[in-house]
Amino acid sequence: MELNTVHHFDCIEGMHQLPDMSIDLAVVDPPYGINFRSSNRKKYPLKSSDGILNDELDNADFLESVIVEINRVLKTNSHIYWFTRWDKVKIQQPLLEKFFQVKNSLIWMKMVGRWVISEEPTPDNMKTFCFARKAAGT
């Protein structure tokens, strides 16, 4: 696989092409397991209007397969940022903890364009992510 190039393919297929312990950092925004459907765009529907692949409500097995492969390709003492929704941390953090030392959970208050979605924290304007480290022997 050519390095320093953007590739567009399934993440599992792409990671299978990488050698063990060859990556310094993983920034991951997986399907959250919320069965998302978009209804915002009528003229040009998004691919997500029919749903996001592997986003069924119980997608823990899929997420664990992603984490296993990330663990294989990450170097020792490297890091992962795992994006999720606030209400999915309790399901996804234990999956991460099987392979990584979770160091912190962070909240990102998002904006849309130049406007804040809401002054109050809501699931629509917050992104939660877990920051974790791959320790030796994992």
Automatic annotation (TrEMBL):
InterPro entries reported for this sequence: DNA_methylase_N4/N6 (IPR002941), DNA_methylase_N6_adenine_CS (IPR002052), SAM-dependent_MTases_sf (IPR029063)
The keyword Transcription regulation belongs to this UniProt entry's keyword annotation: no
Alphabetic keyword roster: Methyltransferase, Restriction system, Transferase
Membrane-spanning parts: none
Signal sequence bounds: none
Pfam families linked: N6_N4_Mtase
Gene3D superfamilies assigned to the protein according to its UniProt record, in alphabetical order: Vaccinia Virus protein VP39 (3.40.50.150)
Residue stretches making up the DNA methylase N-4/N-6 domain: 23-126
UniProt family annotation: Belongs to the N(4)/N(6)-methyltransferase family.
Name this polypeptide is given: Site-specific DNA-methyltransferase
Organism encoding this protein: Heliobacterium chlorum
